[in-house]
Amino acid sequence: MKILEVRRHSIRSAGGDHLSQSGIELAQKVGQGIGPFNFVATSALTRAFETAVAMGFAVTEQNELMNTYGGAVEREAPWPMPYFHYSEIIKQEGAASQYAFRLMDYYLGILERVPQGGSALVINHGGVVELGVVACLPEVDFSTWGESVDYCEGARLFWDAGRFVSGEVLRVKA
């Protein structure tokens, strides 16, 4: 079994690119309860990279695919929405679906670099988290997963025998 943890970045300064002090503190708190990770990937945006570092993890790679999903996807899947709505949108096979499955392919590439029994952390953004997660778990009923991800929230996905077998939503307690 391998584990892929996908999380949204932490709190940034109003209108800024960098994490705020409260964002650093939140990421540190969350980081104390997770890991270790064999591989850490973030979007190429500063706030995602800084979140991984504040959590206590060195970044293995950054990928612009996870920065944002662009206008066509935004029109089909505007953030924020509950996981369930994203799962219904990707069934329509439009731009959001194509983007979600590109994310899944990227995640599969990460898992190929993680040893059996290992884990990886991915930090990206609201909407990107949900789309990638629902693409990886097409059989899951997301009606119980709740609203969109807040800061440092996301999902833990379990990979076994060549496929994602299950997942769990990750929420941050106040």
Describe what you observe in this structure.
It is built from 6 helices and 6 strands, in the order βαβαβαααβαββ. By secondary structure, the chain is α/β, with parallel strands linked by helices. The protein has a single domain (2-170), classed as Rossmann fold. It has a 6-stranded mixed beta sheet. Strand 5 and strand 6 (163-170) form a beta hairpin. The longest helix has 18 residues, at 95-112. The radius of gyration is 15 Å and the shape is globular. The termini are far apart.
Tell me the layout of helices and strands:
Blueprint: E1 2-8, H1 21-32, E2 39-42, H2 46-55, E3 61-62, H3 70-76, H4 83-89, H5 95-112, E4 119-124, H6 128-136, E5 154-160, E6 163-170
Parallel strand pairs: 1-4, 2-3, 2-4
Antiparallel strand pairs: 1-5, 5-6
N-to-C series of helices and strands: EHEHEHHHEHEE
Number of domains: 1
* Widest sheet: strand ordering: 3-2-4-1-5-6
Largest sheet report = 6 strands, mixed
Helix fraction bin = 25-40%
- Report the span from N to C terminus: 31 Å
Q: Cα-atom Rg, whole angstroms?
A: 15 Å
CATH architecture: 3-Layer(aba) Sandwich
The CATH class designation is: Alpha Beta
For this structure, what is the CATH homologous superfamily?
Answer: Phosphoglycerate mutase-like
The total of helices stands at: 6
Tell me how many strands there are.
Answer: 6
Structural class: alpha/beta
Kindly list the characteristics that best describe this protein.
single chain, 174 residues, alpha/beta, Rossmann fold, six-stranded mixed β-sheet, 36% helix, globular
Offer a concise description of the structure.
With 174 residues, the chain is α/β, with parallel strands linked by helices.
